[in-house]
Amino acid sequence: MDDNILRKLLGRFKFPDLRQALEEWNCVALDEELFVGGGQKKAVVDRLVRACQLQGEEIGLEELGTLDLVYNKMYSRSRIWSAYHFTGYKKKLDDCTVSAEVFQRALGKQLFFYFRHVLCVRQYKDALWVWLMVQDKSSTVWTPSNIVHMVYYPASPYIFTSTMKAEYKEYILQALLLTIGYSKAQFMDLSGRDVESVAELAKRRHNQQHVSPESQRSRKRRKQDEESENEDVIQEDAEDRQWREDYTRETFGDEPQPTLENVVYKLHASFKHGGVAPSMDDQPFQMTVKFSGRNVLEGMKAMGPAGIAEPPLPSYLESIPNIGKNFILLAEKRKPGDGDGKE
């Protein structure tokens, strides 16, 4: 066991979360004496490392990897998650998509053909959390830059990963395809820090979600109740406000939007001079626009009711909740025979 690595991993947890993390890790016997007297986190971590040394069971790379997996599950927003879509369905999904243990063996068998590695899989609710460290030199070396985190929802054609080194990426995706039973993996131009929100948006892309009639009725009843309480108040812009609210409800729904910190639009078009700089007419014109915030989708949803934007929104904004991507190319629509632009 490398005491320094263990001490570093334990030290990353917030002190109030440390006990829960150890319970999930389940690699050291929890003794109340470890936490007696409180004290600084460093002192508690030192006692935990000592307890691991004395218990007699080896804490190897797989156990350390499991502890790192627990950390990244608890603080999943500390990294960027990228969405991949699997296509080319080949076989019926079997138990390896449900059981963490069987999935780990099946994926490990495929990875074995490409490189040495350490692999850990844990199941949390309906998702499998995967920790993978590629070993390119020694089986005893802890290499953080070679670690990949993944989240997979069984029986779905999506997986969400942390950053992968270019030299390993193709092999990792190929091993996943062979394990799950597809022939192709494609990046969805979708990423974010909230992995559950990224997963929700990925599913919406191929399973359009609409506001339920019940949700619309309840929202309408609330609106009527508010108006009945203020019968003496005359709102001159009531019709316009109602239109904005109805449009926003139909487009974004009543529920809070999935969390996305960034939405990026890239414009590829031809320059139109409009009487200025005619020599540049039809020259290639490119521009990137980036929206950033705690939740960009909620911000877009609020623009109409707040009067910041006039509904209906352009299609490239209106479609954001359902297209399953936050890196979007806006290309000029060309005339027939010149090829079609895309949005």
Automatic annotation (TrEMBL):
Superkingdom in the source lineage: Eukaryota
BP GO terms, sorted: CENP-A containing chromatin assembly; chromosome segregation
Entry keywords, A to Z: Centromere, Chromosome, Nucleus
Membrane-spanning parts: none
Chief subcellular location: nucleus
Transmembrane recorded as keyword: no
Subcellular location field: Chromosome, Centromere; Nucleus
Pfam family, one: CENP-N
InterPro entries attached to this UniProt entry: CENP-NAC/CAD_complex (IPR052011), Chl4/mis15/CENP-N (IPR007902)
Basic and acidic residues: compositionally biased ranges: 240-252
Acidic residues bias: start-end ranges: 226-239
Region (Disordered), start-end ranges: 202-256
Any one annotated GO CC term: chromosome, centromeric region
Family classification: Belongs to the CENP-N/CHL4 family.
PANTHER family, alphabetized: CENTROMERE PROTEIN N
Protein name (Swiss-Prot/TrEMBL): Centromere protein N-A-like
Lineage of source species: Eukaryota, Metazoa, Chordata, Cephalochordata, Leptocardii
